[in-house]
Amino acid sequence: MEKIVSLAKRRGFVFQSSEIYGGLNGCWDYGPLGVEMLNNLKQAWWRSMTFRDDVEGVDASILMHPRVWEASGHVANFTDPMVDCKQCKARYRVDVLMDELSLKKKKDILREMFPTEFEGQQKDERIESEFSTRFSNEATVTDALKKSIPCPNCGNKGTFTEARQFNLMFKTFVGPVEDTNNVVYLRHETAQGIFVNFMNVQSASRQKLPFGIAQSGKAFRNEINTKNFLFRTREFEQMEMQYFVKPGEEDKFFEYWREERMKWFLELGMKQENLQWHKHEKLAHYAKAAFDIEFKFPFGWGEIEGIHSRTDFDLGNHEKFSGKAMKYFDEQTKEKFVPFVIETSVGASRSFMAFLCASYDEEMVEGEMRTVLHLHPKLAPMKAAILPLVNRDGMDDIAHNMTKDLQKYFRVFYDDSGAIGRRYRRQDEIGTPYCFTVDSQTLQDQTVTVRERDSMRQERIAMSKVKEYLLEKI
Ligand code: ATP
């Protein structure tokens, strides 16, 4: 992780927010290359979702009517239990605190709390499974927090406060008066902007079920624990799609979207062995099924996308809370009903980080270490570098002209400084998939060499074919 974070900063992918003031926890800024890559990622998602017949797009506002969040259940339920250490004032989310205990600590806690049962040697797997069963309810967790779990910061036991529910939505006020009547929330998910527009989109687009609505945009969560770079931040971007279906057809489409979404990651270059499904055993009361796609980050497996079968809960609740019908009229059967929903919900910034981690590599080439990002050409911030071998005999002019031509279609980069090998390495490090070099042969036959990033193989192609070549690869 450290290497990736440092490359991200050095080469201008991601900076700490407000760094000159010491940074703001849980917030990050995308630099020149980062913004290109993030846009490419969002574009890849947008195309896969909306360049088809049955999904429409929207871009809803971040601030919404406060009743939206009552209807969605988030004012009451979007909370995490949290404790403070009375000694050192550190604050923790209880579930994270429990998850992050080392195996040894888990063993100690089990021994302390259930001395007769956990005296001797136990297999590691038994400790893990016993720990999660014994501490699966609030009462035992509270007990363990009071007696046996040490504060990770100061190491003291018995110093935690009672757990308190903490709402993760950021609050602010509309208009000049800061009172409770004027409270609004920064959306913590993009999904509700889709639900409240269901009828608008359906009647404007004349879509028939099944159809979906996609949206990507900022979301905000006042996370208690922000860590692991872009994994859990307070401001992030989501890409969500709600697919509306006839009740009874939800299982079929749930399977369909699970497959589609896994395929999306694989087609953008992720390896199957770095992805896995996680099935939710504990479901929200309205959910029929939920699976996460997890990626193997350097610090362990972590969710990057959730695929949820959400019944008619969201539209049904908005109907109740707003008093406006959220029913679909089926012209064939002449029935009116609230559609069921399959949701696909992926973090743009979290999957950006997953793609960075998946593509980062170090390899020995002719006795030298080469750092390379094996990014899919679609995601790579720069699609190509144009390099004159030397700055004379008109090579630089040709390369400049080629750059200008290509810039009508792609983000490409002109570089004439330093030895060619070093220039290749600089491009490898930021994931540029192709380098086109203008050399003395170009002056004679209008061909250039293409050097491919991953194989480092070179071939000559006609200069007039470069645009086509790139289009095809991307
Ligand atoms: P987690 O428990 O891992 O924070 P979650 O289950 O609350 O995630 P969802 O509410 O299902 O996540 O959100 C869908 C997606 O949005 C996640 O898969 C993740 O990619 C992204 N996401 C959620 N919270 C954050 C965050 N704080 N920072 C970055 N991305 C996030």
Question: Overview of this structure, please?
Answer:
Strand 4 (79-84) and strand 5 form a beta hairpin. A seven-stranded mixed beta sheet has the order 3-9-10-16-13-12-11, with helices on both faces. It has three domains: 2-77 and 169-357, Bira Bifunctional Protein, Domain 2 (BirA Bifunctional Protein, domain 2); 82-167, no CATH class; 382-473, Rossmann fold (3-Layer(aba) Sandwich), CATH 3.40.50.800. 34% of the residues are buried. By secondary structure, the protein is α+β, with helices and mostly antiparallel strands. 35% of the residues lie in helices and 26% in strands. Adenosine-5'-triphosphate binds at residues 221, 223, 232-233, 236, 238, 303-306, 345-347, 349-350.
CATH architecture of the largest domain: 2-Layer Sandwich
Q: What's the average pLDDT? A: 94
Tell me, briefly, the overall form: globular
Distance, first to last CA: 28 Å
The CATH superfamily of the largest domain is Bira Bifunctional Protein, Domain 2
Number of strands: 23
Strand content: 25-35%
Bound molecules: adenosine-5'-triphosphate
Stretches with pLDDT under 50, minimum 5 residues: none
CATH topology name of the largest domain = BirA Bifunctional Protein, domain 2
Helical/strand content category: alpha+beta
Q: How is this fold's topology laid out?
A:
Blueprint: H1 2-10, E1 14-16, E2 28-30, H2 32-50, E3 55-57, H3 66-71, H4 74-77, E4 79-84, E5 91-93, H5 94-99, H6 103-113, H7 124-134, H8 138-147, E6 164-167, E7 171-173, E8 183-185, H9 191-195, H10 198-205, E9 211-220, E10 235-245, H11 250-267, E11 275-279, E12 289-297, E13 300-309, H12 313-322, E14 328-330, E15 335-337, E16 340-347, H13 348-359, E17 360-365, E18 368-373, E19 384-388, H14 395-406, E20 412-414, H15 420-430, E21 434-438, H16 440-445, E22 447-452, E23 458-462, H17 466-473
Helix pairs in contact: 6-7
Bound molecules: adenosine-5'-triphosphate.
